Every structure is written in C-alpha cells, then in structure tokens.
Amino acid sequence: MGFSCGIVGLPNVGKSTIFNALTRSSVPASNYPFCTIDPNVGVVPMPDPRLAKLAELVPTERVVPTVMEFLDIAGLVKGASQGEGLGNQFLNHIAQVEAIAHVVRCFEDAQVIHVSGAVDPQRDMETINTELALRDLGIVTGALQRLEKVAKSGDKKAAAAVEVLQQVLVPLDQARPARAVTRALPPAALEVVKPLNLLTTKPVLYVANVGEQDLAGTSASVAAIRKIAAAEGALLVLICGSIEAQIAALDSEEERREFMAAMSLTEPGLHRLIRAGYDLLDLITFFTVGPKEDRAWTISRGSTAPQAAGTIHSDFERGFIRAEVIGYADFLACGSESAAREQGKLRLEGKEYLVQDGDLMHFRFSV
C-alpha cells in the first residue's frame, strides 16, 4: 500500500531544495519558475527508532522501513486554474496525491527571486489556496449542473447529491477549501464528493521554509503562517531548506550528527516533515520480525487485523484465521518473542481486532 504527499507552493519557495534533501537526489533547484515540469517522485523511509531497536533484539538478514512517497510538483502561479504557467497540468499532478505539503517561503535571499517581488507568506498562501479552490469550483459547478437536470426528473438520489454539492460550493465560492464543509459531512454525503477528487478536500500541512537565523520560528512571517494554519486546524512544520540540503550532502552519519549539534538541532527538520505527513494521513505502523527480515508496515489507523495482513499479501487477508500480537512496549520489556509468550504478553486476536501503532504481528492463514 503506497501513501503519497505532494509538495506544492509558488515557484522559488524551496520545494525542490526540500525534495532533494528528503530523497538525497539531484533534481534541479534552479532559480527560475517552472524548473520542474513533470513531478519528481521520491520514496522516503519513515524515521522510526523502534525498528532499529527491534533489529537489535531480533538479528536479521535485512531491515526494511516503511516509506512515504513525496512528489515535487512544479510551482503554481496566480491564474493556474485558468491554465497560467501550465497550471492545469500541475493541478492534475496534485490530484494524484493523497495529502498536500504546502511550502511557504519565509526566508529573505536577494539571490533567489520571488515571483511576486517580495516575501509575503499570507499573500502567497492565499494565492495557492485560491487557485486550488477555483479549480474545485469548476468541477463542483459542472457536477451540480449535470445532477440538477437528473434531479428535475424526480430522481431522489440525484436530488440528495445536489444538496450535498450545494453545501460544498459555499466555501469554494469564497475561495476557501471544501474541507471546511466536508470534514463535518456524514459518510453517505462524502460518497457523493469522493469521486470528484477535489484538491481542497485533501488534508494539508504547511511547511514554513525559514532562513538559518529563524530556526526558532519567531519571525512575523512564521507568525502569519501559524495563525492561518491554526484557523484551518492544519499542521505546521518549520524547516530551513538550506540547512537540510547541507545535512543531506554530508556523507556519514557521524558528520551529520556533528553538524546538527553545531546548529543546536536534535534531528533533521525533514524527519518532522515525514512524521507530519504520516500523521496527516492518520497512518500507523505495525512490525513483523524474524531471521530473514525485520520490517515496518504502514496501515490506516482503525485497520483490522485481516486488513493489516492484506498489506503483506492478499492471501493473508483472504484466508485470515488469527493474529499473534505483542505490543511494542511489551516486546521491549520481555526482550524476545519466547519471553513474551512465557510472560503472557503474546495475545491471539481475531478478525475484529483493531491494530495498534507499534504492534508486532504474526498472521495465521489458510487458503
């Protein structure tokens, strides 16, 4: 199962720099708009110290972390929803992802031009959010027109769908995201909206790309983003793209640790970004361990044991019998599966069991 997050923003806000650091790739980060045409895709391992600890306790041939896919999507500009700057193409790229990381420029640098002439996070955020809302407005308006014709013939299902889309239209008409309404819709109403794949129903986190002197996030620029994010109930991550690029360029883990210590950093800011993307999509991790492989697996929170089994192989879900489960803290305390079994910490769970973050699992199945 793959989970993807699109990195969006205006041109020259640091998207490609952050993407390159995330993936340690060499995507061009040139100083001109539309440097990125097709979205660059990077598969990024989830930083999870639990997996390293499990590998100490259960020696294995290989250790496999869970991953998240990041797409570096070209910079949007004002008028993108009307096709400006290849806008329609770029908006369609955003439609492919499940979540959005909206990078907002907070750093001042005379060497990196700003498409609007000056750094103004609030204006920049409004520009992007307006273009996303306008794109969705066109889609919802078209769907409404089609459904209203059907509803006039007495089709009750179409009439109910019209009512739902009329609610969704309200925030979009005001250039606000549709999720302002969809968050509160019941499941049946969400089924009406889901096929439209609206950009502004996707969960979003804001990434404040700050200068080296503003790592604490005390500037007026960060305050402006924080206020908007809080009003939306959105996550905010502070990152200094230039520092992350320097960390990523270092060859050894020891060099990276020394550099971060000199910058008073406990971890790369990108680790916070990856975890925030994970939280944004409401994902959790379960583990499988053994002599061949210690592995982390990603599932949506609220997944059942058979659904978790299905992420390993469809046969596991289809023929699910039961799961042997040890909580991560219990496994750590016991030190091994056999000790956990002896101490009564290994549980047998059935089809209704909701997997908890950190569970160690072994599936019994028959097909």
Description:
43% of the residues lie in helices and 19% in strands. It is an alpha/beta fold and 367 residues long. Helix 8 links the parallel strand 6 and strand 7. Helix 1 packs parallel to helix 9 and helix 5 packs across helix 7. The longest helix has 31 residues. The radius of gyration is 23 Å and the shape is flat. About 4% of the residues have low confidence.
Secondary structure layout plus pairing:
Layout: E1 4-8, H1 15-23, E2 40-45, H2 49-57, E3 62-64, E4 67-72, H3 87-95, E5 99-105, H4 121-151, H5 156-173, H6 179-182, H7 187-193, E6 204-209, H8 220-232, E7 235-239, H9 241-249, H10 253-262, H11 269-280, E8 283-288, E9 293-300, H12 305-312, H13 314-318, E10 320-326, H14 328-334, H15 337-342, E11 347-349, E12 360-365
Parallel strand pairs: 1-4, 1-5, 3-9, 5-6, 6-7
Antiparallel strand pairs: 2-4, 8-9, 10-11, 10-12
